[in-house]
Protein 1
Amino acid sequence: MSVNAHITSALAGVLLLGAGVPCQAQAGHGAGAGDKDRQIRLLERQLDKVKNQNLVLSRDLAVSKKREAELSKSVNELRLRFAALGNNLLNGGEDAILEAVKNAEVLDKRNSATEKAVHNLMANLREYLRTAITADPAARVRLETSIRELDAALGLRQKPRPQIAQGNLQQAKIISIDAESGLLVINAGENQSVRRGMTFAILRGNRKVAEAIVAETRKDFSGVLPTELENPKDQIRAGDIASIQTEQR
């Protein structure tokens, strides 16, 4: 029986008892008064019991709603996580991953090559201008060579894609971080026995920075997503080391 039914039954009993008081008074004041008192006490106890049940149910309802809200929040977070772990996470294969490998090391090398090529170009240009009147063929060749070097350094000519050293389960390097999704690309993949669902510790020196789970793998690269930061103010950086956890959570 529901709480409302209990309350309705108790109140109906009280009303019926009140309606029967005149008849009981005519039958006998002493016996009727005693029965009336007992019935009133019984109804009061029933009413108190129903009130207590109603209070408990109200509290349970509040707790249930709170848990439902927490569960709904957790479900939404999991949906976002599973969406991030979708099969199209690294859509495009190794070429897409390599395209994302624009870390500081690669950029520094390109900048150094550009500076060197520009320096050589300017030096040869000055020499060429100095000898332009005599139309020195050797100076012209050096100038054209420097221009080609500058084109290559700036990426204007076709160049072989950069060779990235391969890591392993114990020591893989984070070579790229996608700012929008937080995806980390590490230089270890299926050939290094990396499998989807593995948990890695992200290290900087001997200090643990975060934990991450493997979301997608390719031949020599993998995409991992951070699951826990040791310190929210200490973000993961390119160049940090990913090392397989000895104990899976």
Protein 2
Amino acid sequence: MPKPRLQLILCSDDIGPEARRRRSGRSFRPSVINGGKRAIAVPAGDPWQAWLELFDLGVLVSQTNYLAFVAASLATLESQGWAERSETRRHVHRH
């Protein structure tokens, strides 16, 4: 049964050529997978568009939280009977 080989993954282009070369006189020989080149080749999107989408998301979350707070406040006031009293007072003053 063959021995499992260690795989070395290079994720940066900063590694010098002396670190990449293999020593031929030793039994330790990892296979090298170059993983840094592919990540650099990915095209970057428009950074302003990403910031705008992030800002829009923040505004949407804030608005949703505000509306949930208002709905909870109204539900609390109605459960305590405060909303009905204010409507009754309006009808009394109109007559």
Protein 3
Amino acid sequence: MDSSKHHIPEEAKEKNEEKEKRPQGAGDWILELFSPTYANAAAVLDGKHEVTEEGPRIKMVSAFDPQSIKNVYERVHMMIKLEEELKKEKAQAGKEGEGSATKKRHTETTADSKRVNLQDSAIWNAEELSVLRGVFRAAKSQLSGLEVKLRQTQRHNAELEEKLASQGTLLDIKSKKLTEATKANHRLKIHCEELQLEVRSMVMKLEAVTEMWREIDQEKLRMMQENQEHRIALDKERMARQQLEIQLQEASQEIAREKMLAEENAKTRYEHHIHRLQEELVKAEYELEGERQLHSQNKRALEHLRNHFASLPLRDVLPPGVVDRDQVAFIDHVSL
């Protein structure tokens, strides 16, 4: 009994030292729920232990405290090991039943001492075992809930993996579309540069056409001036013709007066004069016909120019006082 009492505290001390050296892990949650109590503690061996009424050794801690649950787990593990050793010794004692009585008594004595040691070293009472069962049931219930949550999490992870695969497929599609869009953008950029070159070319052509239009406008002004000069010349010719008609009338009257006096001379002179006038008249008619043809050509040219520049803003370009309408229609022709 004394040797066994000394042996158990040494084992407890070794376990405490191992506990201090060992890092805190997932299995350390039982240690703080129950603290082991030994009947042969060091204080009892030293004679300093006072016998008091032992109450329940339950610590008022949470049933889910990791350190407390670790302590409970280690105690359960220790008791299971002690029970296994006791069963092994009983089995060995049964096999050696045919041995000597001295050995049998020694074995029985050893078994009894160990049995007594097991009884003396019991670490739980009925209340503590009830609490342990409650903790176990609570842990089992919590484990069931965690298993349900695990299955839900696994299903959710499967759904997320499916979504991830679909998102990966969509990402590949988007990447392909982005590549195609980048290529299309590059093509559009090249096309835009070509259009800019075409715009520059069209601007240069427009400037050339504008310069040509200015030259045509100057040519139109020059032709309008020539037309005005032709009108003045035509008026002069009309006045000259009127003067010739007056002179002809005067000559006719003079011939009529002088006819009586010198019919033959007057007749010869009159014929000569008429012949000269007819030649001049034919010449004037030829000139008038040429002027009419030139006027018709100018009129057709002006009609073409009018049709060509009908949509151009001439009023913004022409200086003030310049004729901006066709004046050919207002020309009066003298009928012969």
Protein 4
Amino acid sequence: MCDRSRSTVSKATGIRKRQPSRRIGCPFSLAVGYRKNHQLWYVRIRNPNHNHGPSEPRKPARKQKKELPPPISAPVPAIGAQSLLAQPAQSAQASTQQSAPPPERLMIPGLRDVALRAYCEWQESYVQDAVLKVEFRKARDVAHANGFDLEQIYFDNDPQFFIENGVKKGIARRFVTDIKQWAKLCEELN
């Protein structure tokens, strides 16, 4: 809200409200909210430069919180049913892979081999069966033996590589697809 906007008292609730800054021609706006899924407050400022000076002397400025980035969503390529019927399966898959934009870079802190180990331990913490834990370690070992780090695995998005190297299909798919979720969790904790 702009400091020049007039305030009014709502007859229904008795709450004092200010006019939106757009009505008085000021481009400034301020929004404060709470994101339940991140359990964080955020402050969003639109155009902090007023087109006029302050109406009163300003108090010392406080540090403002940065706005959280919007939730990240993986791009999903659109595939028409007609194009799938007309083309062989491999050429349809190749055309959708070429049209999809590359995934955004992940910010994974620390050493890459240590992050690979930590990711594997995180995956193991979601299963109780010792055989499945061994399969996650096998996927980690295959990645390490071939020099892959988590970001490369995420960009390739190829569970078939792990399946061909002896990892069970479900574990290979989980190992490849959960990297982004783990990276977001690490980012929230740091």
